């Protein structure tokens, strides 16, 4: 879990560095095709990163709910019944010792069950902290992706219209070549007639 967070933070930092480099280049070379391509790639990577982190967040939340259910069942096995609200309150306290209050351990199995509950509680606390950090990261990335949406639309528009401009330029070039050929023929005819007239 810590490794995933570390990797996610590295990816986020690299995406921000790329964004800053693109912004710096925009000031110096505003219409570079290479710059537009890099903007599109950066935006695509940002969106994919948000999708992956959203899936990771959903998986963590599902795991937390499963752990919570297991803790509730284990508490019932040890003879302590709790409501969902009480269990949430215990988990929010961040103190695994709350599960030991009022529980008398008579067998090794009961002690093992308690250790499992405390371990699950610690896992849930770690997950909650991770979910909070991921939420902050999501907010940053969501704002980044949203701000780049309009820019991507403009890039797509210009790319689509570039094909039209190339086709028009090709047609104009062909017309110019025809006119040039006709002009050469006319000038050679005029020169031959002028030479006949001068003789």
Question: Would you spell out the secondary-structure blueprint of this structure?
Answer:
Blueprint: H1 2-28, H2 33-77, H3 84-93, H4 108-198
Structure description:
The protein is mainly α. The model has no long low-confidence stretch (mean pLDDT 81). The chain has helices at residues 2-28, 33-77, 84-93, 108-198. The radius of gyration is 35 Å and the shape is rod-shaped. It has a single domain, classed as Methane Monooxygenase Hydroxylase, Chain G, domain 1 (Up-down Bundle), CATH 1.20.58.70. Helix 1 packs parallel to helix 4 (108-198). 8% of the residues are buried.
Distance, first to last CA: 99 Å
* Beta-strand percentage range: under 5%
- Main beta sheet: none
The Rg value, from CA coordinates, equals: 35 Å
Unreliable segments of 5+ consecutive residues:
none
H/E topology pattern: HHHH
| Shape estimate | rod-shaped
Helical proportion?
over 70%
Structural class: mainly alpha
Number of structurally distinct domains: 1
Report the total helices.
4
Overall mean confidence score, pLDDT? 81
CATH-assigned fold name:
Methane Monooxygenase Hydroxylase, Chain G, domain 1
CATH architecture descriptor: Up-down Bundle
